[in-house]
Design a protein that fits this description.
This protein has a domain of 58 residues. It is built from four helices and three strands, in the order H-E-H-H-E-E-H. The chain has a three-stranded antiparallel beta sheet with strand order 1-3-2. The protein is mainly α. The termini are far apart.
């Protein structure tokens, strides 16, 4: 039984194509062109979410100066360090009040 050379060539091409397609990363595996930088300034909503408190409470903390914020035009933003400092201050405050007086 003789095989048509063209059929053999097509089979070889299909086999090579299958190997090439298997080697290609899928969209989920493909690395992003550039990683997204970590955000430095957060919206009030994002800061509230990080602290697991409400947006109204966050605005109240900004108003009293417990959380520092900046205005960029009409946009209020909170530096990530201000959120971390507020949280660290809460922890320190509670540790100091929970220790018995010597």
């Amino acid at each position: 039984m003789t095989t048509d050379p063209r059929t053999t060539e097509i089979a070889d091409l299909l086999a090579r194509l299958t190997v090439l397609m298997a080697d290609q990363p899928t969209a989920a595996q493909a690395p992003a062109s550039r990683p997204m930088p970590e955000r430095v300034l957060l919206t009030v909503e994002e800061a509230a979410e990080r602290l697991h408190i409400g947006k109204t409470k966050t605005y109240a903390l900004i108003k009293t100066g417990e959380i520092a914020s900046v205005l960029i035009g009409r946009l209020r933003r909170i530096h990530i360090d201000a959120v971390n400092a507020y949280a660290a201050g809460l922890v320190a405050e509670q540790q100091n009040t929970s220790r018995p007086a010597a």
